[in-house]
Design brief:
Elements (H helix, E strand, L loop, with lengths): L1 H10 L6 E12 L2 E12 L3 E6 L5 H8 L7 E6 L2 E3 L4 H6 L2 E5 L10 H11 L6 H15 L14 H14 L4 E5 L7 H16 L3 E5 L3 H7 L2 E6 L2 E7 L5 H9 L20 E11 L5 E11 L3 E5 L6 H9 L4 E8 L2 E2 L5 H5 L3 E4 L3 H5 L6 H6 L2 H4 L5 H14 L16 H15 L3 E5 L7 H18 L2 E6 L2 H7 L2 E6 L2 E7 L5 H9 L1
Parallel strand pairs: 3-8, 3-9, 6-7, 7-8, 13-18, 13-19, 16-17, 17-18
Antiparallel strand pairs: 1-2, 1-4, 4-5, 9-10, 11-12, 11-14, 14-15, 19-20
Length: 512
């Protein structure tokens, strides 16, 4: 590891001066240290990947650079001059712009209107005609065309991410902070974004790429920095390290737990856990998001739903658990019709639900881990035994390696990955007959993501529950599924056995 640290000095050259230098940055939250004396540089014209397990401090560091958090201690220098970044507006003034994995756009406005509003918000004034021309030209260059006069709700997830990047360029970004912004794009589209950011760097821009995907970092980055427990483990040039080297930096002895081999095929029971018949479900904007979907999931089976975001997977999952109304068709849980039943009536029947937005549909961030367990009737039987709840919380914290000072710590003080661990661990307990999940390992590091997939698979095999998993991460779908259904434009366009599936065929169906 000492050798890895020395690469940082070797790679810094007079030809590539630091655009951003972070010196001795520390940040504490109640009961935890998020960053501890971090030193870090972003060079001119480089793509720099920032990796680390959940709770390592990546998001905290990025939010400090973007002015969302103010450090307790330490200094930031922009092109050699000391800077105080206390708001996103100030970060943008310094040429630093962040793009996250969740597009921050207004669905009812057009692409051009969204960009104009974004510019005005930060004091940039420009003509609408110029913005329209910029959108057309740049999207054509990238190979993902976007009509500036199209309402945002009509765009694919890939197109929305492109709009976010175009806004960053219009804000005159010199440093792009990409916080998991391209992690969940399909490979074909992802490669177009790789070219986009390489071109940006070749013209003197700098990119900080935050990702959980080691192979993504090795594909596109010039240097890689790894954080662990709030400290820098090392900064290395991509050309000098292998995936195993980076993995060992991130996870130390736990790196041996990482494997992408397909998990053992389950032996389904005879009974159908879930039957979906000719299902039609409305989206958020008055059109059908789910169009005539029919699927049968057997008890003890894991079915994966592959597809690019925005093709009906979210609406299908929400209809099953009662969050979205079914217009036509039926949903049956072990032969019982649960179509348009309330969420509470579906959940009390032993249905676990893992949404990819824990704060919106899963957890109360203001409450503690204990309280988030106690609020579910299926775990408390209406009378809360706080001693049992406390023991259960401690068990889950240990089993899932949840980084928290205490079971009584409010969930809002945990990192995004640890919040997801709280949700997943609770829902695996709740799921006695069926588990429905949407991107269940989003925001989780490699070791934890694979651990969660193994837990899900084991629960299906040993307890005989049915599991329906929708995910934009095709690696996840291929690893965990017994059968794979592909959704495109609200329809199921193919169903495959995992033992016979060909990845290229699935990707073609996803983008056809």
């Amino acid at each position: 590891m000492t050798l890895l640290k020395t690469y940082n000095k070797d790679f810094s050259s007079k030809n590539k001066p630091p655009v951003v230098s972070v010196i001795g940055i520390s940040k504490k939250f109640p009961g935890s240290i998020a960053l501890d004396s971090v030193d870090f540089t972003i060079l001119e014209g480089e793509i720099h990947a920032l990796l680390g397990e959940n709770g390592a401090g990546k998001s905290t560091l990025v939010k400090i650079l973007y002015g969302i958090y103010v450090p307790d201690r330490g200094e930031i220098y922009i092109r050699g001059r000391k800077a105080r970044i206390n708001s996103p507006k100030e970060a943008i003034r310094q040429g630093i712009v962040m793009v996250s994995q969740v597009p921050q756009l207004i669905d009812k406005l057009t692409v051009a209107e969204n960009l104009i509003l974004g510019l005005e918000k930060y004091g940039f004034i420009t003509r609408v005609g110029k913005v329209r021309y910029f959108i057309r030209e740049k999207s054509r260059e990238v190979g993902i065309e976007v009509d500036p006069d199209t309402e945002v709700w009509k765009l694919s997830y890939t197109q929305k991410q492109l709009v976010e990047l175009l806004r960053a360029l219009l804000l005159n970004a010199k440093v792009l902070l990409l916080d998991e912004a391209i992690t969940f794009l399909p490979l074909i589209e992802k490669k177009k974004f790789y070219k986009f950011i390489r071109d940006f760097a070749s013209k003197g821009g700098s990119v900080l790429l935050i990702t959980h995907k080691i192979y993504e970092a090795l594909e596109v980055a010039d240097r890689i920095t790894v954080l662990r427990l709030g400290r820098v483990v090392g900064t290395v040039p991509r050309s000098k390290v292998s995936p195993d080297d980076v993995r060992k930096m991130m996870f130390a002895e736990r790196s041996s737990q990482v494997t992408y081999e397909r998990l053992p095929i389950s032996t389904p029971r005879e009974s159908a856990a879930l039957e979906i018949s000719d299902l039609w479900v409305m989206g958020d904007h008055g059109d059908h998001a789910v169009r005539g979907v029919s699927l049968t999931l057997r008890a003890g089976e894991v079915m994966g739903i592959a597809g690019i975001a925005g093709n009906g997977q979210k609406e299908l999952i929400q209809a099953i658990v009662g969050l979205r109304r079914v217009e036509k068709g039926r949903i049956r849980l072990y032969s019982e019709d649960i179509t348009n039943r309330s969420v509470s009536k579906v959940r009390i029947r032993g249905v676990g639900y893992i949404p990819d937005q824990p704060a919106k549909y899963g957890l109360s961030l203001e409450n503690s881990i204990e309280e988030n367990l106690a609020m579910l009737p299926s775990l408390t039987n209406r009378l809360i035994n706080w001693g049992s709840i406390r023991d259960l919380a401690r068990k889950l914290i240990k089993e899932f390696n949840i980084m928290t000072p205490s079971p009584k710590t409010p969930v809002k003080f945990l990192s995004g990955g640890n919040i997801m661990k709280v949700l997943v661990s609770r829902e695996l307990l709740v799921a006695r007959r069926l588990l429905v999940a949407y991107n269940p390992t989003r925001a989780l590091d490699e070791v934890t993501a694979i651990m969660v997939r193994k837990f899900i698979k084991e629960k299906a095999s040993t307890e005989g529950i049915g599991v329906l998993v929708a995910s934009e991460d095709l690696d996840e779908i291929l690893q965990i599924s017994d059968r794979i259904a592909v959704m495109n434009s609200g329809r199921v366009v193919g169903v495959f056995s995992s033992s016979e599936v060909v990845r290229d065929e699935i990707e073609k169906l996803m983008v056809m």
